[in-house]
C-alpha cells in the first residue's frame, strides 16, 4: 500500500470519464489498497481513482468511521429531498462552496471479487457517494455551482499554486 499523490483541478484526468474495471487482478487490488490508505487521513471523506491519476471507476470512502471502497459504482437512487452543503474537494484544496446534493443516495457496484455491493447513506455519506461518482464521470463539484459561484471558484483556483495548467 502507498499514500498516493493527488491530482489537482486543471489536470485532464479529472475531466475524463473513467473506464470500468474489467480485470480483478493484483493491480486493481493494489489500487484499492492505495485508495483506502490515501483516504484514511483526518478530514478526508472520499477519494476517486482519477484523483490519484488512475482513470478507472473506483473510489474509497471514509465517513464517520466507515472505511470502504466500490468498484464500478453507479448511483441507483437519489432522494428527492435535497440538502445545501458546504463542499470541498481534495483536488480543489482550500476552496469551499455551497452545493446542492440529494439528502440520501444509494450506490451499487462490485468488490475485488466482482461480487455485488451496495453502499447507501444520508447526509455526509450521501454527499460523498455523489461527489465521488461525479469524479468517475469526469465532473468536479465546481461543475454543479451556479454561474456566479463557478466563476468565482475558477478565478480563485487559477490563482493557487496547486492549479495544474499546461
Automatic annotation (TrEMBL):
Its EC number is 3.5.1.88. One of its GO terms (biological process) is translation. Its cofactor is Fe(2+). CDD domains: Pep_deformylase (cd00487). The keyword Hydrolase applies. The active site is at 132. Binds 1 Fe(2+) ion. It catalyses: N-terminal N-formyl-L-methionyl-[peptide] + H2O = N-terminal L-methionyl-[peptide] + formate. Keywords: Hydrolase, Iron, Metal-binding, Protein biosynthesis. One of its GO terms (molecular function) is peptide deformylase activity. The keyword Hydrolase applies. InterPro entries: Peptide_deformylase, Peptide_deformylase_sf. Fe cation binds at residues 89, 131, 135. HAMAP family: Pep_deformylase (MF_00163). Removes the formyl group from the N-terminal Met of newly synthesized proteins. Requires at least a dipeptide for an efficient rate of reaction. N-terminal L-methionine is a prerequisite for activity but the enzyme has broad specificity at other positions. Belongs to the polypeptide deformylase family. This is Peptide deformylase. The gene is def.
Amino acid at each position: 500500500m502507498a499514500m498516493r499523490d493527488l491530482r489537482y483541478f486543471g489536470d485532464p484526468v479529472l475531466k475524463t470519464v473513467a473506464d470500468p474495471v474489467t480485470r480483478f487482478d493484483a493491480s486493481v487490488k493494489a489500487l484499492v489498497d492505495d485508495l483506502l490508505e490515501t483516504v484514511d487521513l483526518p478530514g478526508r471523506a472520499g477519494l476517486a481513482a482519477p484523483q490519484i491519476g488512475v482513470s478507472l471507476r473506483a473510489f474509497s470512502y471514509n465517513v464517520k468511521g466507515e472505511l470502504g471502497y466500490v468498484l464500478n459504482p453507479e448511483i441507483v437512487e437519489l432522494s428527492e429531498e435535497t440538502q445545501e452543503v458546504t463542499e470541498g474537494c481534495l483536488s480543489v484544496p482550500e476552496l469551499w462552496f455551497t452545493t446542492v446534493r440529494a439528502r440520501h443516495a444509494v450506490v451499487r457496484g462490485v468488490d475485488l471479487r466482482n461480487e455485488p455491493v451496495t453502499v447507501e447513506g444520508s447526509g455526509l455519506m450521501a454527499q460523498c457517494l455523489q461527489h465521488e461518482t461525479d469524479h468517475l464521470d469526469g465532473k468536479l463539484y465546481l461543475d454543479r455551482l451556479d454561474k456566479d459561484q463557478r466563476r468565482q471558484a475558477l478565478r480563485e483556483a487559477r490563482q493557487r499554486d496547486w492549479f495544474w495548467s499546461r
